[in-house]
Amino acid sequence: MMAVRRRLLPCACLGLLGLLCWVLVSGAFSPETEHQMEFMDASELGAFQPQSALSDMEFSAISSYRGPGNKDQRSNKELPILLWWSAGLFPHFPGDTERIDCATSSCMATSNRKVQHHKRTASIIFYGTDFRAYEAPLPRPPHQTWALFHEESPMNNYLLSHGPGIRLFNHTATFSRGSDYPLTLQWLPTLSYLLQPAAVPLREKNLWRAKGLAPVLYMQSHCDVPSDRDRYVRELMKYIEVDSYGKCLNNKALPAELEDTATATGEEPRFMSFVARYKFHLALENGLCSDYMTEKLWRPLHQGCVPVYRGSPSVADWMPNGRAVVLVDDFSSPGELAALLRHLDQDDEAYARYLEYKDPDGGVANARLLERLEAREWGVNDMSKPNYLNGFECYVCDRENARLAAERAHQRAPQQAPPPPPAKMANNSHMGCPLPRPGYGDIGDVPPDDGWLQIWPLDYWQSLDQAEGLESLIRHNESDPSLLWQHIQNIAVRRARGKH
């Protein structure tokens, strides 16, 4: 468990934007701060000059909870430093530096890049969406590890889906269950979120159908994505009626009071009531990666609608029971899928079986789902639990302290204490996403001037070039990231000569 516990906003904001909103306005910063940071000795203070007039607050330490296993009595100037490279994600407020007291040890956390090469900067934490090979902090000191926080879709950075990209990192928190600090169920707040009764009973859904509502809802305004979902939906529309309200394949207008897209993001009650009228929601992720599941999946389950899902190929591992979703990839064609949806639309008893998971007496039968919800230390919209940003920060802190302690023990008594093993590297199980493919049909059937074809497969392979180029920069101890393109060119030449 992390040290500093923060209160959540009294609103239903899910996801990273909501989390940042919570961190910024949380009430964790008591006016009764007990002491000012003893951060650096006089020779080191230059690296941590305040960035604003809030000098008294910039370096104030928080009177924080200390984990029962944390017996770290070191002063601030003795602690290892964790540098958040993406300052916009720094999970503390209002200053740029804070002491964190975690489960077993303590660290200084900062967003001040001036300490990039400091001898005590043990790890740099990156936000995956912001990580760019041509902006990487170089050279990379041998004593320093890199940590990756990336809960977002692969479309934000395909560099991380390639071996040379992901193995740049030693600690990871991603949507994949294979990462060090998994965020797999980040969009599922609680078990009770699933168990709530259907927002619109089936009898009422049938009345809306009789009034002209289609059986299937599609609502997307982000149209050009790696999963190429619109291509599939366009074909599905030939076989079953679909009401499409977003900018993508739009064929129906939203009520005027719901046109503000923020109503969808924040689960505004009127919006939720409106979409709950539909029997089926097309829940198509923008990227197809194992364990990448968003509100597109969990929200319909919460509302008592049946998701027609394409996204994580391992989604069945996390469903409440064996029948809660209709999986697009279980069908050989959109026509075959449409035939099942038409059958369920006409057979109330068959449709109701998809909602049996809402039975509070054993409807959720997936032991893996129940165990993960019980075991995770962080919460979503839960004031009794810490958030996952601070949680991952403390995960890195505790492991860096353990690594440094092992190194010191070996230096003091090399015969008694063996050298610590090299810092582990992440691999594709931490976040490996495949080459984008067409949403419907074979890639050979896609016209050469197709917009999707000209963007996403190219982006995937160009990201591999950048990952290999950055790996080469680090291997050569380069300090200028602008040399990336030169290294990429050299790699391409060696590859063409059969030497790579």
Automatic annotation (TrEMBL):
Gene3D superfamilies: Glycosyl transferase family 10, C-terminal domain
Entry keyword annotation includes S-adenosyl-L-methionine: no
EC primary class: transferase
Domain of life of the native organism: Eukaryota
Record keyword Transcription present: no
Recorded GO MF terms: alpha-(1->3)-fucosyltransferase activity; peptide-O-fucosyltransferase activity
Compartments where found: Endoplasmic reticulum membrane
Residue ranges annotated for the Fucosyltransferase N-terminal domain, each copy included: 79-182
UniProt pathway: Protein modification; protein glycosylation
Membrane topology, record value: Single-pass type II membrane protein
Listed EC numbers: 2.4.1.-
SUPFAM superfamilies according to UniProt: UDP-Glycosyltransferase/glycogen phosphorylase (SSF53756)
Record field: catalytic activity: L-seryl-[protein] + GDP-beta-L-fucose = 3-O-(alpha-L-fucosyl)-L-seryl-[protein] + GDP + H(+); L-threonyl-[protein] + GDP-beta-L-fucose = 3-O-(alpha-L-fucosyl)-L-threonyl-[protein] + GDP + H(+)
GO cellular component entries: endoplasmic reticulum membrane; Golgi membrane
Keywords associated with the record: Disulfide bond, Endoplasmic reticulum, Glycoprotein, Glycosyltransferase, Membrane, Signal, Signal-anchor, Transferase, Transmembrane, Transmembrane helix
Family: Belongs to the glycosyltransferase 10 family.
Function according to Swiss-Prot or TrEMBL: Protein O-fucosyltransferase that specifically catalyzes O-fucosylation of serine or threonine residues in EMI domains of target proteins. Attaches fucose through an O-glycosidic linkage. O-fucosylation of EMI domain-containing proteins may be required for facilitating protein folding and secretion.
Protein's name in the database: GDP-fucose protein O-fucosyltransferase
Organism: Gadus morhua
